[in-house]
Amino acid sequence: MKHATQAALDQLEPLLAQLRTLGLTEKSRGVFYRKSRAFLHFHEDPKGLFADIRDPAGLDFDRLDVTAAEGQAQLIEIARARA
Q: Which domain holds residue 24?
């Protein structure tokens, strides 16, 4: 699964705008850090758009499908809780 292209991130811009309000640092478009650690980034493949978000233990990433509005809402909820 490849990292999201600029065109894919264009589709997610409203989601990115919401994430930018959570106090995270956006190192490059769509790549968010919490303190000095990678926290959230996006991938794309033929099945859709996906977000990898740092798990609660901080050891790995959880992958969420953010192709549809339901997945995007879930991502915002999880990011708020973990940020």
A: 2-82
